[in-house]
């Protein structure tokens, strides 16, 4: 291959990677815009619903694995709530610090977003709405499905969730509770506590050539290395 042809091939590959990152950013933006009390049932369109191991895991809750489980989470769990249950509820989350790596082979990608949020929630359908801080991060895998980037594995790592009036240093009752019956125990339970040093989760994705596993966000070598090293 001639040098000019090699350069053109390299440029074409880089352009595809940049376009992939832009499409993934728009995909996550669409998910977040739809993440409210009115549009939960629209979420499956953003997921790789033709991929058998598509999944969603929120904090320390049981993971929803497979297309049926993901569909039931958004179209069953939330749709079963009547209008009265949603009255006074508000979900507003933002996406910041996009950190995306597209695989060298262009078939998968990984991304981390810090996501501060404010919510108005009810602890039960008849309860009064409460103002809540909800801060966390996404650590997601993406896959090309029928030529479109889709969310493959969604993970929400909770940093704090607490009443607006009390603050995260003193209040713990909004933490998601472990159910204790999952075959896939959560590795995402990492809430703030004054009693220990919170883990630096999720870690940002590193460059990779092809899919090699889904626990990249749990790595700890940066924490163990010398000051300033990776």
UniProtKB/TrEMBL annotation:
The organism's place on the tree of life at top rank: Bacteria
Pfam families: SnoaL_4
Coiled-coil blocks: 1-28
InterPro entries, alphabetized: NTF2-like_dom_sf, SnoaL-like
Domain SnoaL-like: 17-155
Keyword Kinase assigned: no
Keywords associated with the record: Coiled coil
Protein name per its UniProtKB record: SnoaL-like protein
Organism: Murimonas intestini
